[in-house]
Amino acid sequence: MASILLCEDSPTHTVLMQTLLEDDAHEVRCAQDGREAMASIAQHMPELVVTDLRMPNMNGLELVQALVSGQSSLPTVVVTARGSEDLAVDALALGAVNFVPKNSLNMLLNPVVRQTIAYSGSDRFSQPLSGQLRSPEFYFKLSNDIESINPATQIVIQALAASGKLNSTNRIRIGMAVASALFNAICYGNLELSDEDPIVAKVIAGDRDSYNELMNRATSDSYRKRSVHLKVSGGDKDTRISVSHDGNGRLARFNPAPGTPESFELEQCRGMMLITSFMDEVMFNSGFSEVVMVKHHT
Fold first, then answer.
1. Where would I find the H helices in 3-104?
2. pLDDT tens digit sequence for 255-279
3. Alpha-carbon span 103 to 6, nearest angstrom
4. Is 179 within 8 Å of 150 (Cβ atoms)?
5. What homologous superfamily is domain 130-296 in, according to CATH?
């Protein structure tokens, strides 16, 4: 499915992640630190880098910095362990496109990798149109089907690529922020789930029975009339994106605070981390049923 460079110094975690990725039909090459990773990239350009943060010689943060400086179109996902949260926050600030906590590898690694590859492909698809789409502005009224998130987000990425705004990494990062906001709006806003509800983790991991259960809830009388609204407006100086929902829940959660160890393990908080890390301005209405995200083009 995709060529992935896995950078990890722990043999145990290398075997675990390589097995997960190969079981999902990816071709995986391995490096033990950032220096080996850079040498491998010079010989064979992957489609995606998945890297640990704490490594000898060149750590994951230094690898992200080197990749952003030299290969702005190569997306990087960082893997975080308890105690490396500060490094993860710095990696997201530097240019990583997503993160996966080590204690959530079985649940999150392949979904995050698939999402990143899809968004990168959407960006490449529209690059021949770069600069030819002027001031894109559009609005989606979405149902509470989480399978609508990626198609809608990919159109946002394609519009940004066709307008020629920002580089590939930033367009993918905006996509991640949009997808997180849409997921929060559907699951926590309209369907009023809690992050502790086991159905959330099962749906993210791709369990079809849990997805069907979620869709039964979405189409029930209590929730079926609720929609999620995605509005995108691209100008010369910035892109403004609004995500809102009709339900009684909140699409934002700040307890535990973003960046704390506990926040890395809750999906609603994880989404907020991506939104606040990737967008230049983030504004909520008083009921936390709408978020406006702004990305400056300079």
1. 11-23, 34-43, 60-70, 85-94
2. 777 777 777 778 878 889 999 999 9
3. 17
4. yes
5. Histidine kinase-like ATPase, C-terminal domain (3.30.565.10)
